[in-house]
TrEMBL record:
This is Transcriptional regulator, DeoR family. Transmembrane segments: none annotated. GO terms for molecular function: DNA binding; DNA-binding transcription factor activity. Pfam families: DeoRC, HTH_DeoR. Residues 3-58 form the HTH deoR-type domain. It comes from Alkalicoccus daliensis. Keywords: DNA-binding, Transcription, Transcription regulation.
Length: 258
C-alpha cells in the first residue's frame, strides 16, 4: 500500500473511532512503528489529529470516546492538580466512588495512608489500589470494556444501586450551562448517573477543556453536584453561574474554593 493510501485509511479510521493506537495501526498495515509515527506526525501537521503517547486522537464529535490508554497521557499535569485538590476532601473512614476516568485513576494513585472504602467499576483503579492495604476495594462487576478498562452494562448498574457513598467523584466528557453534564458513552453515563444519585456529596472533576461543550448522552443537571474541581481558571460567567447554582468551584491552580 502506498503511503498516501495508508494515511487516507488512518484519517478515515480516526474520524470514525476518534482515537487510534500505534500498536493497532502497525498490526493492521503490517509496517513498522516508525512508519506509523511518521504518518501520524504528518496528519497532525495537516490538522487532522492530535498525537499523544502511543497513538493519536481527535476532540470533535458528541460521541467521542477516546481509549483510556491514550487518555492517560492527555492533560496529565491538569489531572494531577485536580486529584490533589480532591484529596483534601477525603477523610479517614469515608466510603467513596471513583469512576472509570483517568482523573479518578490519578486520585487512586495518590491515595496514601488513609482508611477508606473505594467502590469502582474501573479495573485500572483496582490495580492502582492493589498494594494499598489501607483501602477496602469494592469492584462493580459487569461486561468488561477494553477501551475503558472498566465494567459496564445492566449488571454493573444494578449492582451499583446497592451502594451509597460519602463522596462520589464523577467525570464527564462535556459541561454546558444549557445542557448540563454530558458524556460520549451511554454506558459510562449510566454508571455516573447512579453514582451521583447515591453520593451524599458529589464532586464533578473536569479539566478546563470540557467546558462549554455538549456530548451525546445526559448524565445529570447541576442540582445534583455540590463541588466542581477544574485545573484552570473559568470565566466570570461560569463563576457566577455556579454561584447561583450554589456549587463550590475549586480551581486547582488557586487556593480559593470559590
Amino acid at each position: 500500500m502506498l503511503a498516501i493510501e495508508r494515511k487516507k485509511f488512518i484519517k478515515d479510521l480516526i474520524i470514525e473511532k476518534k482515537s487510534v493506537t500505534v500498536a493497532a495501526l502497525t498490526n493492521q498495515f503490517k509496517v513498522t512503528e516508525e512508519t506509523i509515527r511518521r504518518d501520524l506526525k504528518q496528519l497532525e501537521e495537516e490538522g487532522v489529529l492530535t498525537r499523544t503517547y502511543g497513538g493519536a486522537y481527535i476532540s470533535e464529535g458528541v460521541q467521542n470516546d477516546v481509549d483510556i490508554n491514550l487518555r492517560e497521557h492527555i492533560h496529565v499535569e491538569g489531572k494531577k492538580k485536580i486529584a490533589k485538590e480532591c484529596l483534601k476532601h477525603i477523610h479517614s473512614g469515608d466510603s467513596i466512588f471513583l469512576d472509570a476516568s483517568t482523573t479518578s485513576l490519578m486520585i487512586a494513585q495518590l491515595l496514601k495512608d488513609i482508611k477508606l472504602t473505594v467502590v469502582t467499576n474501573s479495573i485500572k483503579v483496582v490495580q492502582a489500589l492493589n498494594d494499598n492495604p489501607s483501602v477496602n476495594v469494592v469492584v462493580i462487576g459487569g461486561q468488561f470494556s477494553r477501551s475503558s478498562q472498566s465494567n459496564l452494562g445492566r449488571l454493573s448498574e444494578k449492582t451499583l444501586e446497592y451502594y451509597y457513598f460519602d463522596i462520589a467523584f464523577i467525570s464527564c466528557r462535556s459541561v454546558s450551562m444549557e445542557h448540563g453534564i454530558t458524556d460520549s458513552n451511554e454506558l459510562q453515563a449510566g454508571i455516573r448517573r447512579i453514582a451521583a444519585d447515591h453520593g451524599n456529596t458529589v464532586f464533578l472533576v473536569a479539566d478546563y477543556t470540557k467546558f462549554d461543550k455538549t456530548s451525546f448522552i445526559h448524565i445529570s443537571e447541576f442540582d445534583q453536584i455540590q463541588h466542581i474541581v477544574v485545573d484552570g481558571q473559568l470565566s466570570e460567567e461560569w463563576k457566577e453561574f455556579l454561584r447561583v447554582k450554589n456549587i463550590f468551584l475549586h480551581q486547582a491552580d488557586t487556593p480559593s474554593p470559590r
